[in-house]
Amino acid sequence: RLPVIVGQVALRTHPSRTIGFILDNSARKELDQRKDEFINMASHELRNPLMALKMRVQLTRRRQQKQSHNEVVTALSTLEEPIKQLERLIEELLDVSKIQAGKLEYRKERVDLHALLREVTDTLQYSYPSHRIVVGAPARACLIGDRDRLGQVLTNLISNAIKYSPQAQTVEVKMDTTEDGITVRVRDHGLGIPREQCEKIFERFYRVATPQQKGITGLGMGLYIVARIVKDHEGIITVESEVGKGSTFTVTLPHRRCA
Ligand code: ADP
């Protein structure tokens, strides 16, 4: 039997066990590599808003004497965006570590998913005037769940649809109530995802490595968190995608009648 090379070590073992070891090893290597890339990207993602804050604070301080009260207020409001960016990043990092520790907690309450979707899309539409978010939803869609966490799912899927559609300006969000539950479909006409990577995007720190997606920053935490929240609500998330045509993410949540 030929020796199988695993790293620097040549092994002579039972083939199936050796193959198992190779897979384990390469999966671990891939995660290690993903973590290294993550640390590198995370440092940039943290540093950029921090630098923006630092520069704006310095500028405001330097001009303070010559500025009117209104100008100072305007200058201060430019600090909001980088602060929000940092907040989002830190929240996601905390969520990932809570998931890893099995400590993501939920407050279950009656949620009007229709109202929540309106709220989320109004906020995103305001923040991203470059895209048009088209919403189709029934008048009422009610379930029991964690309102904030479900809002996080919707926000994440819709903002990804915008982020990964640099050229296509329309994002469609369709909510339906069926026998199986409430379905939310988020469809974009953007870059798309290669078929073999569609499952992997729900893994921790995974990012699609196509030339088209290269310039788009992110840390690969959002969908990992989204998938966990959906699963913890006994729901299902799926994705259909074609490179160059766009992607459709579908979330189905069980229907629990609420008065
Ligand atoms: P992030 O966007 O911060 O990298 P996510 O976990 O939200 O992390 O997404 C993981 C990866 O899945 C992204 O890096 C991107 O490659 C891919 N992806 C997610 N949503 C879309 C989409 N709507 N269109 C194309 N690719 C997507």
TrEMBL record:
Chain ranges of the Histidine kinase domain: 41-257
Domain of life: Bacteria
Protein name: histidine kinase
Parent-record interval covered: 468 to 726 of 726
